[in-house]
Amino acid sequence: MLKKFNSLLLIILILFAGCQPEDLVDPFLDDDPDDSGSKSSISYKVDGELIQGTFSEDNIIDIGSLTGEVIKSTNLTNITIGGAILKNSKMYGIVIYLTTDKTYDQLKNGDSFVGNISNLSQLTFAGFGIEDLIDDTVFSSSGDEDEIENQNLVVSITKIDHDEDIISGTFSFDAHDEELNLTKKITEGKFTNVFLEEK
To answer: Any signal peptide, and if so, which residues (predicted)?
Structure first.
């Protein structure tokens, strides 16, 4: 599971590393063509530096991608949110992965989830990466279980529309790069109006 997760984070960074700002396209328009005028966004601070992107039908600011997926079953719900943002010649990639033993319809505003890799029905972790497109250096959060276990991850749902499959929420966590022996603090995270494609 963790290897698959790290691969997803790496794919997000690679997909957008070769893009120019005018090439960056968000998939929301194709996923929800009738929802004209709605805006989706993600923002967070990395060691105090604000990283943000906003998508609307006629305007893309900084953002390369913002996607959501949901798997609904009778006894588990899995939600994955991933985003990539180009800023100052750097690509910032983030993935939030949460599983709960609540059904999708039971999820509600105010539900919170903490980092957990010891219980498959409450598996919750996050990944983060920065690729510098100029000097080709990469910071990537470790796939080491000890590092993920110590992320201090908190994800909260602030709004969920079960009929339209749209979710908003907040998050914060510590991202560790084992090879570089660095930790970056992800704070004040917020995703808004993310469309969840059912898998």
So the answer is: 1-19
Asked if residue 18 belongs to a domain, the reply is no
For 85-118, write each residue's pLDDT tens digit.
988 889 999 999 999 999 999 999 999 999 998 8
Structure confidence at residue 56 (pLDDT): 63
Q: Which domain holds residue 149?
A: 41-176+184-195
Residue 116 DSSP symbol: B
154 neighbors 173 (Cβ within 8 angstroms): yes
Q: By the 8 A CB rule, do 9 and 95 touch? A: yes
Residue 103 backbone phi and psi in degrees, to 5: -75, 160
> What is the spatial distance between Cα 140 and Cα 148, in angstroms, rounded to a whole number?
12
What is the spatial distance between Cα 177 and Cα 40, in angstroms, rounded to a whole number? 29
In a domain, 53, yes or no: yes
Burial 14-52 (b: 16+ CB within 10 A, else e): eebbebeeeebebebeeebeeeeebebbbbbbbeeeebb
On whether the pTM is more than 0.85, the answer is no
**H/E element, 92:** strand 90-100
Q: Total structural domains in the chain?
A: 1
112 Cβ contact list (under 8 Å, min separation 6)? 154, 155, 156, 157
